[in-house]
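Need tokens for this chain, all 168 residues.
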Amino acid sequence: MTAELWHHDRIDTNGIELHYVTEGKGALMLFLHGFPEFWYSWRHQIPEFAKDYKVVAVDLRGYNDSDKPQAQSAYVMSEFVEDIRGVIDGLGYESCILVGHDWGGAIAWSFAYAYPELVSRLIVIYGTEEYVQDLRIRYIPNCSHWVQQEKPQLVNQMMREFLDGIDC
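Here are the structure tokens for all 168 residues:
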């Protein structure tokens, strides 16, 4: 791991501040964690993909070092979707490769439906399975957070094969 290269920062989005960790340069690759995790669940993927992309792993609202609004209404899907839109815009990008796991996968699907023009590719690891015909989308089933943590090289390989195999 290259934890010494990770940069921690915060970004204003949708009326709150989100904490994130970033490494690398290039096109934006945005990672959304599952429940009950936080950005650190992507520690094996950050250095792998920072070789080719600006990797950003956020703490979603209500998690870890991000703001935790008190109102229950602050935790509806539309709020998470707008958070992600604000992150992409706030970082100065027009689109991203969006990667979500578990709860982050559900947010990623919802975001891609709401803002397809902001997603160049979508990778969902063990989230809500959707019918996939779009070649820009890769769904990796049966990959719980245990597989993501215990066999990160397998997850990295599946993601790398998808990213290297399609020219969008």
